[in-house]
Design goal:
globular, 543 residues, alpha/beta, 15 helices, 5-stranded parallel β-sheet, FAD/NAD(P)-binding domain, binds NADP nicotinamide-adenine-dinucleotide phosphate
Length: 543
């Protein structure tokens, strides 16, 4: 347990969250001599990997790159031995604890500490941070590192209170687990989470009914235990792999192989087959034009439809799980036995789009239209209040008492996804809208953003500046750049956690909440506004 700061503590920085982003920021700032505390609502490190304990939880990036890089600590990299191509929740939580112990970071973290409010005090140029237990801390810099996907979306359903079985949201799965043996289980949602849960639970439950609305595009994971050769090669090459990955569209060690429309059908099929056989996110980055052109997109959709038909034996079930949204307009889950599980006697899938859950009774789920499903356990894999949920859960107030919730009521406003006008010295690390998170390897983006923040904090402190914030004009310019790119893709056509129906942005012109121009283009924008380039003219600095 960390040391609880006294009520009068004044710090250089408070970071909220002890996942990848919080720990990276903590280490970089303490290494530079800043006083920092991390407030973490949970009782352990890991962020998403602390909370998401559902059966089957594992990474979708290859484990070797889903870790801190040489930027974080050149001595640590390569010391950890990953067991599998995609690490399980338990393994990655173990890794987080290992890193925290090795670098003695725990002393800086207050666990079981949920931030209730963050108010900027203009007279003192300090953030006043009050936890739910009433402890107050002041800090020059306030760094929410709360994740874009951390506030669970739990559908509000009539009768859920009366349900006598067990229910939970996947991100609040009980630590002691759930005994699924012989139970009738309903899993709601078929994003990456639901698709991981179903095959695991199907092995034990009497029955699993999967309730879905819009089928996801699911790509084979092809997980395997890493051999000594994999591990030795990975350790030897990891810095080169990461350097290469930072230059690719998704910061993964895969890059486009041309465009679908300029590739002849035979070669295209061969390229897709090869990527399919390798498994993993390489399949996402095969052709560069699939989000720009419906014809290009359709080539991959055709391929997927054929694959589903070959994997799911019952034609009706295959049709139910065949996506209709354009390929890659949602973040594809990796398949670790999902399609195969649909061939089991004890698994069924129902599309509830036209017949949503009407109400829950003591023992069953009623769908609109009359169907009743008897159930013992309900798992809601229904995703998150993306981007704004965790930030809005904190009462954040900037200059003149303006509330972030209010300022962002119609849509989030920020610069590079990192800073907001009227919220000086607040850096939204990896949790700000319009960052490229869905298309990137999480740790790569986190480290790039945290380096940008670190540079600014060092600069401001060395040069005697009190505050930094973007102008509203800078925010609008960034948003226009983002929106122009996003709206030139097929992404606004699909409702997902990275789009939003807002007034003025509905249906085919949904607001896109994530940067879609690729990691290198995003990084270039950030690099153009560092202190050493022309950041001092792009951002507003006050002494
Ligand atoms: P998600 O992709 O947002 O999926 C939520 C699912 O719940 C969707 O199928 C959605 O249907 C459904 N849903 C939401 N509200 C519903 C309601 N009221 N009634 C019925 N269905 C409802 O969430 P997620 O699966 O947790 O994944 C989110 C992201 O987390 C992923 O894209 C990924 O970035 C990350 N993640 C990664 C991994 C990994 O492999 N490392 C694992 C899990 C999550 P609609 O689509 O129709 O709205």
């Amino acid at each position: 347990m960390g040391i609880t700061p006294s009520p009068s503590t004044d710090l250089d920085a408070v970071v909220v969250g002890a996942g990848f982003s919080g720990l990276y920021m903590l280490k970089q700032l303490t290494d530079q001599g800043f006083s920092v505390r991390v407030f973490e609502a949970g009782d352990g490190v890991g962020g998403a990997w602390h909370w998401n304990r559902y059966p089957g939880a594992r990474t979708d990036s290859d484990s070797m790159i889903y870790a801190f890089s040489e930027w974080f600590d050149p001595d640590l990299i390569g010391q950890w031995r990953w067991r599998e191509r995609y690490s399980t929740q338990a393994e990655i939580e173990h890794y987080f604890n290992w890193v925290t112990e090795k670098l003695d970071l725990r002393q800086h973290i207050d666990f079981n500490t949920r931030l209730a409010s963050a108010v900027f005090d203009e007279s003192g140029g300090r953030w006043v941070l009050t936890t739910e237990s009433g402890t107050t801390t002041t800090a020059r810099f306030f760094i929410p590192a709360v994740g874009a996907l951390s506030e669970p979306n739990i559908p509000s359903l009539d009768g859920l209170d009366e349900f006598t079985g067990m229910w939970c949201h996947s991100a609040r799965f009980p630590r002691e687990g759930i005994d699924f043996n012989g139970k009738r289980v309903v899993v709601v949602g078929n994003g990456a989470t639901g698709v991981q849960i179903v095959p695991e639970v199907a092995r034990r439950a009497a029955s699993v009914t999967h309730l879905i609305r819009s089928p996801y595009h699911i790509v084979p994971g092809r997980n395997h235990v890493l051999t000594n050769t994999d591990i030795d090669g990975g350790k030897r090459d990891i810095v080169d792999i990461l350097r290469y990955a930072r230059e690719t569209f998704g910061s993964f060690p895969y890059d486009f192989k041309g465009t679908a429309l300029e590739t002849d059908p035979e070669t295209r099929q061969a390229v897709l087959e090869k990527a399919w056989a390798r498994g993993g996110f390489g399949f996402l980055f095969v052709f560069a034009d699939v989000l720009a052109s419906t014809d290009a997109n359709e080539t991959v959709m055709q391929f997927l439809r054929e694959k589903i038909k070959s994997l799911v034996k019952d034609p009706e079930t295959a049709a139910t799980v065949t996506p209709t949204d354009p390929w890659l307009t949602k973040r594809p889950p990796l398949d670790h036995g999902y399609y195969a599980s649909l061939n089991r006697e004890n698994v069924s899938v129902i599309n509830i789009k036209d017949h949503p859950i009407d109400r829950i009774t003591e023992t069953s789920i009623h769908l609109d239209g009359g169907q009743e499903i008897e159930v013992d356990v309900i798992v809601f894999a229904t995703g998150f209040e993306s981007y704004t949920g965790a930030l809005n859960a904190i009462d954040i107030r900037g200059r003149d008492g303006v509330a972030l919730r209010e300022r962002w009521r119609d849509r989030p406003r920020n610069y590079l996804g990192l800073m907001s006008a009227r919220f000086p010295n607040m850096f939204t690390l990896y949790c700000g809208a319009y960052n490229p998170a869905p298309f990137t390897n999480g740790p790569s983006l986190i480290e790039q953003q945290a380096e940008w923040i670190r540079k600014w904090i060092v600069f401001l402190s060395a040069e005697g500046y009190e505050t930094i914030e973007p102008s509203e004009a800078a925010e609008e310019e960034f948003f226009s750049t983002h929106a122009a790119i996003a709206n030139s893709t097929l992404i606004p056509r699909t409702a997902s956690w990275w789009t939003r129906d807002t007034p003025g942005h509905r249906g085919e012109s949904r607001l896109v909440m994530s940067w879609t121009g690729g990691f290198p283009a995003y990084r270039r924008l950030c690099d153009e506004s560092t202190p050493e380039v022309n950041g001092t003219s792009l951002l507003q600095l006050c002494r």
